[in-house]
Amino acid sequence: xxxxxxxxxxxxxxxxxxxxxxxxxxxxxxxxxxxxxxxxxxxxxxxxxxxxxxxxxxxxxxxxxxxxxxxxxxxxxxxxxxxxxxxxxxxxxxxxxxxxxxxxxxxxxxxxxxxxxxxxxxxxxxxxxxxxxxxxxxxxxxxxxxxxxxxxxxxxxxxxxxxxxxxxxxxxxxxxxxxxxxxxxxxxxxxxxxxxxxxxxxxxxxxxxxxxxxxxxxxxxxxxxxxxxxxxxxxxxxxxxxxxxxxxxxxxxxxxxxxxxxxxxxxxxxxxxxxxxxxxxx
Length: 282
Hints:
Blueprint lengths: L2 E3 L5 E3 L3 E2 L6 H14 L3 E3 L7 H11 L7 E6 L6 H15 L4 E6 L6 H14 L2 E7 L3 H9 L7 E5 L7 H10 L2 E5 L13 H10 L3 H11 L3 E2 L6 H8 L8 H8 L14 H10 L3
Parallel strand pairs: 3-4, 4-5, 5-6, 6-7, 7-8, 8-9, 9-10
Antiparallel strand pairs: 1-2
Helix pairs in contact: 1-2, 1-9, 2-3, 3-4, 5-6, 7-8
């Protein structure tokens, strides 16, 4: 498995398994077990997903040595703040049944990100977390956090797919040595990604699906990917992306699909800040 190296030396598999929108315990546990049996060694969950317990149970049941599995979870904004972040971290660790976490992220760029980040820095220094990072931080918020804190985030998990490629965001991440990670690599099927003519044409050359072409395109850009599925055949399909390589022309054709607007929503409006506050019950 290809890996990426963080700015603190920790390595992470470039391809992992995501469990967003799998709140059902049995379905989530079964999917994680299938992913681990397939060969995935990185699992991405979050406090807000409501499935940390299922992930922890699956890891335990798999019998795979702990040091072979890279586990990520995230802190939700309702628990932001120095003391609350530490308490929330311990709750997540109890559900995951882990003594140490590989990667812990601030899930959103709202509320008390600075108090929360100080808590994460301390947990990182204590050895309870191997690396800390952020999610959904736009370039200005990322630079602000970095310039006024001690530890630079290892990774920034942001919406990234062929229709929203985040090239400007990537420049800032590269400047600071922050790894680029994608959520929604398939745009959740928006813009007919699975039937896109460009992706289908490229896939036909290699005997691959648009989903596999998309994952390969991200991997060749050194973007960490965490596709989610509850279908065993799709979980296996998404893992079979290391036996072909896209040409420079292929990469350029996919680059033409870029759109400057999110396929979902922007975090950069007052209305969205208010919406996240409502979603968090604050």
